[in-house]
Amino acid sequence: MRVVLLGVAVAVQFGLCLSQLVGQEYRARWVAVVAFVALAVVSAACAGWVSRRTEPPVWVVAGGTVVVLAAAFAATALAGPAGPVPDWSFGLVGWHLLVLLLDRVGPLLVAFGWHVAVSVVWFPVAGSPDRERIAEAGTVALGTLSVQLAVALIARMLHRRTAQAMAVAAERDRLATRVLAVEQAERGQRDVFAGQLGTTLPLLADLADGVLDPRGEPARRRCALAATQLRRLFAENDEVPDPLVHEVSACLDVAERRGVDVSLAVSGAAVAVPAPVRRELTAPVAVTLSHARTRARVSVLRTATEVRVAVVSDAVAGPQVAWAAHGVEVESGTYGEYQRTEARWSPPS
């Protein structure tokens, strides 16, 4: 709209007002010429920003408004025409004000009111108008101002509708992003559940086929491991301040239900640990606790440079756990009657 309004202002100034300036009698023509040139300079100054589809800076808007109103006063009062009919500057000033103050409705109305008030006050001072002159001036003023105010109203309405449309589009994008994130999270959870069930389904199949004796020690250990893994997996979806300790506690809960005396020691402030890393840190805890017979001790140590999860249990026949994934290093060893397993992870610097 600013581009169009600037084109209208230039077309009106040089297409209509220039001929009036040349053909009309003035008390001080040079003042009218200076006012005409000042209005042209304002249009040229705004053209750079308008052509780039950007709003002119505040100092350009404020300075241009002052220049436009001063030029209108100079053309009307100081170098006014012989008769009281509004001169060429009356309608032209409104188009320049629209270019400058299109996004500022309050200052635009104030500038319009100032311009109209000065013109109305100066109209009887310039001469003794009769009814015909008053009607002619009123027609010119009403026709010009009604069109310009209608443009301002349309611009305001379009600006409001555009803001509403942008808000709706932004909200739609946020909803789409949230839906996509939820879908990705669901797919990730399905993959994780599928990976955990990969150890559970063979157990159920062996029990159903009679390969495993439910009363035997191997079956109980495999059931304990599957229960611990699933319990930790369920705890992974809980909203808690310290997810790592929460998931470790979930593993301990299954062991305690089997009658194992388990203690937990936590030191250090909570550290942000990604979910895949937490799975690798708690996996050896689940394996070792599933083989614990009567006693186990789990410790969680967090520092600025390292996170450690260690478990010591009386699982003498437990497996020797050792692997490295997602930056997690796991070590396991047997010390007399106890087995110790430790998982370490260093946050990226």
Descriptive report:
This is Signal transduction histidine kinase. The chain crosses the membrane at residues 29-51, 58-79, 108-125, 137-158. Helix 9 (275-290) links the parallel strand 1 and strand 2. The protein has helices at 2-23, 29-51, 58-78, 89-101, 105-125, 131-209, 217-235, 243-257, 275-290; strands at 261-267, 295-302, 307-313, 324-325, 328-335, 338-345. The chain is built from nine helices and six strands; from the N terminus they run ααααααααβαβββββ. The longest helix has 79 residues, at 131-209. It has a six-stranded mixed beta sheet with strand order 1-2-3-6-5-4, with helices on one face. Helix content is 66%, strand content 11%.
Q: What's the quick description here?
A:
The protein has 349 residues and is an alpha+beta fold.
Task: Estimate the helix proportion, in percent.
Answer: 55-70%
Major sheet details: 6 strands, mixed
Overall number of structural domains:
2
The chain-level structural class is: alpha+beta
What's the pLDDT, averaged over the residues?
80
- Structural shape: rod-shaped
Beta content: 5-15%
Catalogue the unreliable spans: none
Strand order of the largest sheet: 1-2-3-6-5-4
Protein name: Signal transduction histidine kinase
Transmembrane segments: 29-51, 58-79, 108-125, 137-158
Keywords: Membrane, Transmembrane, Transmembrane helix
